[in-house]
Write a structure and sequence with these properties.
The protein has about 425 residues and is an alpha/beta fold. The protein has 14 helices and eleven strands. Keywords: Hydrolase.
C-alpha cells in the first residue's frame, strides 16, 4: 500500500516513536471469521473458503518486509511516497481462540460442544484482548474491515494490518473474514453469502457494543462485502426500530461506516434506508467512481446500477427525488466521487482505497480525526450533491488537520516558515 499523501513523506506521522508492539497486549492483529477451519489435508491455509457454523475469533501474527529491521526504519520508510524497494506483508501464524458463543445458531444441538465438534467459547478472551488494547490506546475506537469477493482468509487480515499501521496502531483493529471464494466464477455464490450471512457481522457488532469498552466503532466495507455490512446494519435498524437515533447511537456506538466500491444495487440501498439504516451509524460515507471497471461488469451481469458507481451517462441521471434526499440526509450520508483522485484508475479502478494516496488519505483522516467531507477540503460538485477532490486537496486537508492537531500545526508552521513547499 503506498503511503497516503496526507503524511507528506513524514510531515504528519501517526506512527509512535517507540515500537508499538511492545505495548500492544497481543502480538498481531485480531480477526473474526465465519469460515470453516482448514485441516492439514486442505489446500487452504488456516480457513476454508466455505461457510462455518459460528464466528471464530483469534489472533494473526504479521511480518512486515522481507527481513527484520528496526522500528525507526519502518517508521520512516512506510511514510515515503516513493520507496526504493518493496516491503511485503505476510502472515506468519494464526491462533484461533475459539468461538463467539452468541453467534451459535439456535438450531444447532449444543450437546455437540461436549464432543468437541465445535470450539470452546472465547467470547471473554476476545473481549479482554480488545479492552486491553483500548486501555493503552489514545483512542478507544474499534475498527473493522470487511473484504470483497474472490479472496482467501489471508486477504482481509493483511489489508487490515496495513490500515492499522497507517492509523498509528490506535484503537483495536479487527479483520473480518467472511467465506468468499477465490474464483471469478463464484460471484453469485459469494453474493448469496455476503447477503445471507450478515447475521454473523451483526452479532459481532452487538458483542463489541455490549462486552467491550469501545467508545466508537468504525466499519470499512469493500466491494461485495458492503452487501454484508449494509444488511447487518439493516438488521440492527429493524431490531431497534422503536428507539430514537440517540438511543441507538448510545447502545451500539457505531460512528463511521465507510463503503468503498460498493457492489450493491442502488435500489436495495434505498430500501435499507427506508428501514432506518441511517439511524444506526452516526455517518455513512459512500465512495463512488466512474472509472470502476469491476462495478461496470457487475452492472452488466445484474442489469442494475451499483451503489459504488457515479451517476451519469445515458439513462442514469440522478432523479430529482434522489437529489433532494441526498441534500436532506447530508448530516448522515455523503457520496464522495474519487474519479479525479490521484491513481484512482489504477488496474481496473476498483481497489482505489489502497492504491490512491488521496482516497486512502481521505478515508484514514475520516477515521483518525472524525473530520467531515467539508472539513477535509472536499468540494460539492456543481451538477449533483456529491463531493469531489479539488486539485489542491492535500493542502486543504493539511489546513483542516492544522485546526485540530496542535503538534501537526507546529510542524506545518515550521515548514512554511522555511519557505519550502510541502509538496517538495
Amino acid at each position: 500500500m503506498p503511503a497516503p499523501d496526507v503524511y507528506g513523506d513524514g510531515l504528519l506521522n501517526p506512527l509512535p516513536e517507540t515500537e508499538p508492539f511492545q505495548r500492544i497486549p497481543y502480538d498481531g492483529i485480531l480477526f473474526a471469521t465465519d469460515r470453516a477451519p482448514a485441516t492439514g489435508e486442505d489446500p487452504e491455509n488456516y480457513y476454508l473458503n466455505d461457510r462455518g457454523f459460528v464466528v471464530r475469533v483469534g489472533l494473526a501474527e504479521i511480518q512486515f518486509g522481507k527481513k527484520e529491521f528496526s522500528w525507526e526504519f519502518a517508521r520512516q520508510v512506510s511514510m515515503l511516497k516513493t520507496r526504493t524497494e518493496d516491503y511485503p506483508v505476510k502472515i506468519t501464524g494464526v491462533e484461533e481462540w475459539g468461538m463467539m458463543k452468541s453467534s451459535l445458531p439456535n438450531w444447532i444441538d449444543t450437546s455437540l460442544l461436549d464432543r468437541g465438534e465445535l470450539p470452546e467459547d472465547a467470547s471473554d478472551r476476545f473481549a479482554k484482548a480488545i479492552n486491553a488494547q483500548l486501555a493503552v490506546s489514545g483512542k478507544k475506537h474499534v475498527y473493522i474491515y470487511v473484504h470483497g469477493y474472490k479472496v482467501v482468509f489471508e486477504n482481509p487480515v493483511l489489508v487490515s494490518a496495513e490500515l492499522w499501521h497507517f492509523l498509528g496502531y490506535e484503537g483495536a483493529f479487527i479483520a473480518y473474514a467472511w467465506p468468499s471464494t477465490p474464483s471469478r466464477f463464484a460471484y453469485i455464490k459469494d453474493s448469496d453469502t455476503s447477503e445471507g450471512f450478515a447475521r454473523s457481522l451483526r452479532v459481532l457488532l452487538e458483542f463489541i457494543a455490549q462486552e467491550t469498552d469501545a467508545e466508537e466503532v468504525h466499519v470499512i466495507g469493500y466491494s461485495n462485502g458492503t452487501r454484508l455490512v449494509l444488511r447487518a446494519l439493516e438488521q440492527l435498524a429493524l431490531k431497534h426500530h422503536s428507539e430514537s437515533e440517540e438511543v441507538i447511537h448510545e447502545k451500539l456506538r457505531i460512528s463511521n461506516v465507510i463503503l468503498v466500491g460498493s457492489d450493491l444495487d442502488r435500489g436495495v440501498f434505498g430500501a435499507f434506508i427506508s428501514d432506518g439504516l441511517l439511524k444506526v451509524p452516526r455517518r455513512t460515507s459512500v465512495y463512488v467512481s466512474d472509472r470502476d471497471k469491476a462495478l461496470g461488469f457487475s452492472q452488466f451481469l445484474t442489469r442494475r446500477q451499483r451503489l459504488g458507481q457515479l451517476w451519469g451517462g445515458a439513462g442514469d441521471e440522478m432523479l430529482p427525488l434522489v437529489r433532494q434526499a441526498l441534500i436532506d440526509l447530508s448530516d448522515q450520508l455523503a457520496f464522495i466521487n474519487v474519479s479525479e483522485a490521484e491513481a484512482s484508475d489504477l488496474g481496473n479502478g476498483h481497489g482505489y482505497f489502497l492504491s490512491s494516496p488521496w482516497a486512502s488519505s481521505d478515508i484514514l483522516m475520516t477515521l483518525y480525526y472524525g473530520l467531515t467531507p467539508q472539513q477535509r477540503g472536499l468540494l460539492m460538485q456543481e451538477d449533483m450533491p456529491v463531493y469531489t477532490f479539488p486539485p489542491d486537496y492535500i493542502l486543504r486537508l493539511w489546513d483542516a488537520i492544522d485546526d485540530v492537531d496542535p503538534a501537526f500545526a507546529a510542524e506545518l508552521e515550521a515548514l512554511r516558515a522555511s519557505e519550502v513547499s510541502p509538496t517538495e
